[in-house]
Design brief:
alpha/beta; 412 residues; nine-stranded mixed β-sheet; globular; 13% strand; 13 helices
Length: 412
């Protein structure tokens, strides 16, 4: 039985009801020795507690798409076939343009949100460079199949969840297609191809979007294998023009890191409640030592870049949860790099879907300006009513997203 399917939810509901009724009906009717009656009543109470906890878990999991299947939940899934040392650029010096095109077979994806605004399709992709074998979900905009657009190549946005999180989360919990499909039809948002690859590749840990020889090549999976597959099988614009990557929480960190590290593969990045220092996620493999942390910290990558990358970044967050990380990047960015930081008050929500879901339309309007249409670029933040300076915070605090806005205000 599927972990996220309706049958499992209904089963949990029925078992919870049964567990509540059993003590009411049988408690006083127990017969036999006292030890037997105590044991039976204890088992009924434990059964009631277990079913209640299970029901709450199922409802939370379905709402937030934390675990996609039993293997993810139990920690038995492993999608890494090999993890060769691919070097600094993550390609192993392979000429990507010479790789033969691979035709993938797609099928209709099941689950909440997968067919409510156009069918989401899924394929099992064996990464030719990364050594990862995992699913990739793809949704094409309403214009994709229209005759007037038959020769049109479309911009692409790669969607990344948090950790733990399912690749389906953007289509399910975030309602991305339901929100964007009518806006794409009306022309208010560019028609994007949406791509959601599996983000959680190893059991029990966040890869941090890092390439770690012998362990995982998550960076290459997301920035090489998945984009190449999309360009091979869909009318997608060639990277980096027309390519963006967006994420929330751990996926937000990943999105910015990928764009800063690979401006030849992405033109724009969106971060919602992200962080710069990988140690922002304690279970991140990229945080296991200082060298990996530095190699996967977009703040340090941007600061050390010999030439400012021609990318645009949109970063939103609350104080202490994404905002300072965005300000840190904004303060060191030099043209042609552009950074747009949005401050969100605590009243907007916490580190949950309730905060990120309402941002979808705004984020994709920004992406439309950056990727979908030939319009002026947004380069300055106008959404922070308290200013953008974080003077007084150390570079380490800014890079990790732990600097306080109050500390910066005192120095103004």
């Amino acid at each position: 039985m599927s972990l996220t399917g309706t049958p499992f939810l209904y089963t949990a509901v029925v078992l919870t009801i049964v567990a509540l009724i059993l003590p009411l009906v049988l408690w006083s009717r127990m017969r036999g020795p006292k030890a037997v009656r105590v044991a039976a009543r204890t088992l009924m109470l434990l059964f009631a507690q277990a079913t209640a906890v299970t029901l709450v878990f199922v409802m939370v999991n379905n709402q937030n798409n934390l675990y996609d299947n039993w293997a993810d939940l139990l920690g038995t899934g492993n999608h890494v076939q090999q993890a060769a040392n691919l070097g600094r650029n993550g390609t192993g010096n392979i000429s990507l343009n010479r790789l033969p095109k691979v035709k993938q077979d797609f099928s209709a994806a099941g689950g909440p949100g997968m067919s409510s605004a156009g069918q989401v399709e899924v394929t099992q992709l064996k990464g030719r460079v990364s050594g990862v074998n995992a699913e990739v979900y793809v949704w094409t905009p309403p214009q994709y199949k229209e005759a007037a657009y038959r020769h049109r190549k479309f911009p692409v946005v790669e969607l990344l969840p948090g950790w733990p999180g399912s690749a389906k989360a953007w289509f399910g919990s975030m309602h991305v297609t339901q929100q964007l499909e009518p806006l794409m039809r009306s022309g208010r948002i560019a028609p994007f191809i949406l791509v959601a690859p599996r983000y959680n590749l190893l059991a029990g840990v966040d890869t941090g979007c890092a390439n770690i020889p012998g362990t995982v090549n998550a960076d290459t999976w997301l920035s090489v294998d998945v984009p190449r597959m999309v360009m091979d099988n869909f009318r997608a614009q060639p990277a980096p023009k027309g390519w963006g990557v967006a994420g929330y929480s751990a996926g937000a960190h990943c999105a910015v890191k990928l764009a800063v590290a690979h401006p030849d593969r992405y033109q724009a990045a969106v971060s919602m409640s992200g962080y710069n220092d990988p140690i922002g996620e304690r279970n991140s493999l990229a945080a296991q030592n200082l060298a990996l942390r530095e190699a996967n910290n977009p703040y340090l990558l941007l600061r050390k870049a010999a030439t400012p990358p021609p990318i645009a970044m949109y970063l939103s967050g609350e104080s202490g949860d994404g905002y300072q990380a965005g300000v840190a990047l904004e303060q060191i960015a030099k043209a042609p790099t552009s950074v747009h930081v949005v401050f969100l008050p605590r009243s907007d929500g916490g580190h949950t879907m309730a905060l990120w879901r309402p941002q979808v339309k705004t984020v994709f309007r920004w992406l439309t300006l950056e990727l979908g249409q030939n319009r002026p670029r947004i380069t300055k933040s106008t959404s922070d009513p308290h200013g953008r300076s974080n003077a007084g915070s150390t570079p380490a605090e800014l890079a990790s997203g732990t600097a306080s806005r109050a500390g910066g205000a005192r120095k103004r």
